[in-house]
Amino acid sequence: MPKRLLAAAPSAPLPHLPTPLPQDPSEHNDEWKSFLSLQSHITDFKLQNASGAKNEDGLSTWQTIELMSQAAKSYGNLQEDLGVIQEATARILTNTHTLTTPTLDPLGLCLSPLSARLNHSCEPNTFIVFSGPTLSVRSLTPITPNTELTISYIDNTVPYSLRNHELSTRYFFTCTCSLCSTANPSPESKKENEEEEKTSALLTRLKTSSPNESLSLLSDALKAAPPAHRYPTPALTNQMLLTALSLKRWGLALQTALQRHEVIDPAL
Question: Does the predicted TM-score (pTM) go above 0.85?
């Protein structure tokens, strides 16, 4: 796990690290050292590749790193050894945040060596938001000085087994936060497994559906969804909001946003 990031006293703001990373590390030594101190998990990615594990695109994460690194070396005319580039690529994939619009549309990746030091918790006390290119860390609860700041690396509304499966395959650790420590580690009930299978199938189908078809599918799914704080209701609600916005259904988008703000967020 990375070094812990602790809350500063109210009068002492967190330090700022400028981005992007320097082309010449010698000119910004501290920033470059911060980047090099981040975990790359390169050995874990190689072992995962040897096990035959694949992502949705049919490639392992290590194969993706190899392709990206080779492309960077070739098209960027880089003189560094390929292994060095692979190490940097692995650090970037492991430690970046998804840069999003206010409506959560992904725009790209944001690398901040400082915020990358935030550890994970399924009950985080902070969250990350973007205002244009500016990254902010905002509190979810009152935080006293010297309290460790945490964020959630994943959708923390999903059941225990799904959370830890994603954390172990993407970040190579098992969560021991307060929520996971009190969870029942036994296999999920048959009903929860069936719900997850249905939701996974639906989310996969939405990727190839038209906005109008997606709207119909989401409406039906939300009618049968569990209470607001239980998976997959938050994820489906977020998808409904994005779909309504894409269709310029402003009334539905406002209704869905209010549902998220007034009912789901407080329950979470």
Answer: no
How many helices (H) and strands (E) are present in the chain, helices listed first? 11, 6
Measured CA distances, 156 to 110, 143, 162 (Å) = 21, 20, 9
Q: How many of the other CB atoms lie within 10 Å of CB of 128?
A: 18
136-160 pLDDT, tens per residue?
Answer: 999 998 999 999 999 999 888 777 8
Residue reference for tokens 């703001």: 13
Q: How far apart are CA 158 and CA 218, in angstroms?
A: 18
The whole-angstrom distance between residue 72's C-alpha and the CA centroid of its chain comes to: 24
Burial class of 87 by CB neighbour count within 10 A (0 to 12, 13 to 18, 19+): middle
The single-letter code of the amino acid at 229 is H
What's the pLDDT at 230?
74
CA dihedral 122, 127, 104, 156 (to 10 degrees): 10
**Cα 42 to the center of its chain, rounded Å:** 19
Pairing state between β 119-120 and 126-131 = unpaired
Dihedral angle sign, alpha carbons of residues 188, 191, 194, 200: negative
The stretch 30-43 carries a mean pLDDT of 88
Q: How many CA atoms lie within 13 A of 31 on its CB side?
A: 16
Cα separations in angstroms, 177 against 2, 29, 68, 78, 121: 15, 34, 34, 42, 6
Residue 184 burial by CB count (10 A; 0-12/13-18/19+): exposed, middle or buried?
exposed
Q: Residue 57 carries which DSSP code? A: T
